[in-house]
Amino acid sequence: MAPMNRTRVLCVLLLCACAGSEASSAKSRGGTFVNSIGGDPDILVPPLLSTVQAAEVVDLVYDRLADIGDSLNILNDAGFTPRLADRWTWSPDSLSIAFHINSRAKWHDGYPVRSNDVRFTFQSTTDSTLGSGTKGLVANIDSVTTPDSATAVFWFHSRMPDQFYDATYQMPIMPEHVWQGIAPSAWRGSEPAKHPIGSGQYRFLRWIPKAAVEVVADTGNYRGSPNLSRVIWTIAPDFNTAVTRFLSGEADFFEQLRAENLAEVAKHPELRTKQYRGLGYGFAQFNLRDPVNHARPHPIFGNRELRRALTMATDRAAIVRSVYDSLALPALGPTVRAYPTTDAALPQIPFDLPRARAILDSLGWRDANGDGLRERNGRPLQFSLAVPSTSKARVRLAVFLQEQLRQAGVRVDVEQLDFPVLAERERKRAFDAAIGQWNTQPSPGSVRGSWGTTGSRASSGTNYSSYESPVFDAYVDSALASFNAPARKAYFTKAYETIIQDAPAIWLAEPIPTVGYHSRLQLAPLRSDAWWAHIPDWWIPADKRIPRDNLPAGTSAAPAESAVKKTQ
Q1: pLDDT of amino acid 28
Q2: Are 138 and 172 in contact (CB under 8 A)?
Q3: Which has the closest alpha carbon to 364: 347, 378, 345, 350?
């Protein structure tokens, strides 16, 4: 009998130990995170997405070969952490990198991740029929070969400091067996685009357009199960509805608080705010080409000294305070403070209204009849300023800029447009001036597409102002080719000084991203390029969980369900 008793005791102890382990694990794993957002993702296909909402979902569902560190270093592979690739080897001449695929990595449908998936992702991304904006960002990659099923080798045209970044950050890896039978030109409307299969720590569950997107933990993931059981994006029809859902407790998180929301958040002791260094900057860009005949310079903005005078007549610091209160800084130029290559002391064109008026006088723009509006040769100093009507902050920027330039004798007609209409006008260069904002990549090299000559002349380029400066281009190219960090920063400084003095835009504001969250959420660091990057490491203490945290995956949580009803 004694042996039997001892066995029973051992079984009881083992059961208690297991129960204790589960209870301990429950303190960090489980729970539902609901994020309130103001719009649908555009598409959940990595090389085709263009919205932040889509990037948030895609980055949790798909994995890269390696992930960039929080410092956003892009020089070689310093700071990058393994993901689908558990190790990599550089060739002696640094013109190739061999990535070894983690043998435990699997797609969410059970197929193993193999090197052919990596090759397929590169070939698809660079296929001209797909129309991916990423194609130009990986132009230095010549090809990807697969000597065996576990090894993908990237071959480069030239040795550059950001080779590793190009091979990893730009391309989340996609499953060849899912997409290979679909022509790239048909990807947007395909079934896999609606139900993506990735290898990340979260599996895609569902997308109800204009209502919600839901992903659930991949508990058998090669990187381990994430702490939160599921993540829901509840989609609101507008900003005010989205922030109200957060304030009322229907959602745990709101990613873009405005200054006017802070007082209301402070009324709720269970809510918190957190700021981080973002990668966005806003500006009023001038079209340097005639909107009708692009072969000719713009009749107003084609003159460098006039653009400088308009910048000099703008009190950027006052505008930023008026629009953003404490949630933004004056922009430094086509760059952000989060870049290690940015000198925070970049010299700016100073605010000097008397000097601006004197320059305009010298250029022949004078108020001849005393009506407050300058003219030259019978033409008034007047232009339209396009702004997306859905962006309250940008509309206010336009209105304040309008008033400040009026004091210099310039008439600005603010034109509020639906975003698609404005985007089409910018693409066609059919505008005078526009309020814009770029949310950049971790690489400062993205400035080539938005302000470089290549971005001006390419049909798919985003240099809508048509600013072209060989000096600016040369400094940027030298910076990107430099392996020496101080030299790299010095070249970028020269490039920024050049474009700031040429004034193709008035550099207005660099927002300070401010998120709101429920105190039950235990956050990891918010990364500058993607605040959501560490969501798998967030957690909710067991004693802070609410009923929706314990619902089975796919069951509508009460906040998400009510959000769906409100949008229908």
Answers
A1: 64
A2: no
A3: 378
